Amino acid sequence: MGALKIEFEQTTLSQVLSAVKSGQIEQQGDAAENVYWLCYTAASDENQFRVWIEASGEMGGPEDRITNIAVKGIANEHPTPDCPTLPRQFDVLSFNNGIWLGTSETAVQHAFRSGLLRRGDQAFIGYHGKVPDNGNCEGGYDLLNSLYITFQGGVVTAVDAGQVTSC
Q1: Which one of 25, 98, 138, 143 has the minimum C-beta count within 10 Å?
Q2: 69 and 54 fall within a common domain
């Protein structure tokens, strides 16, 4: 988000809110279904979109560390009080893997040479494995990364990326 780099399970919703200086943290659900989020409406040269920056109530901890980011192209929708316009200095958005709205299906396949699971216009790639721990989790932590991509007309129209680490 411009100069603001969001790192899964490190950056908190409060840090994003403090940097952006607009929006409001929303919440819904309870227990394992509890989620907190910030929503913004933004535009690039070719796309108008909404971005949801989310923290699982369970996995994001009491600090609301970010565990998921979802972006979806929209058409003719206006900002709302709960999804305001993202200030211009933050609306240059990208994922580290180079995948973004408008990316061609060919470029996505090139970025993920190991292959994507496909079903219609939906694609998925994920990782589940062990990572070293700090002595608090016997055998190491479980790390789960996920990336869901939606295509329409041969280009990316939505991206949902997440990461959680657990014992």
Answers
A1: 138
A2: yes
Last residue of a domain, one of 93, 121, 150: 93
The pLDDT tens digits for 4-49 are 899 999 999 999 999 999 999 999 998 778 899 999 998 776 678 9
* One domain, residues 59 and 116: no
How does pLDDT run across 98-107, given as a tens digit for each residue? 888 999 999 9
Provide the residue count of the chain: 167
Residue 120: which region, alpha, beta or left (left: phi > 0; alpha: psi -120 to 50)? left
| DSSP character at residue 45 | S
What distance in Å separates the CA atoms of residue 20 and residue 51, rounded to the nearest whole number? 13
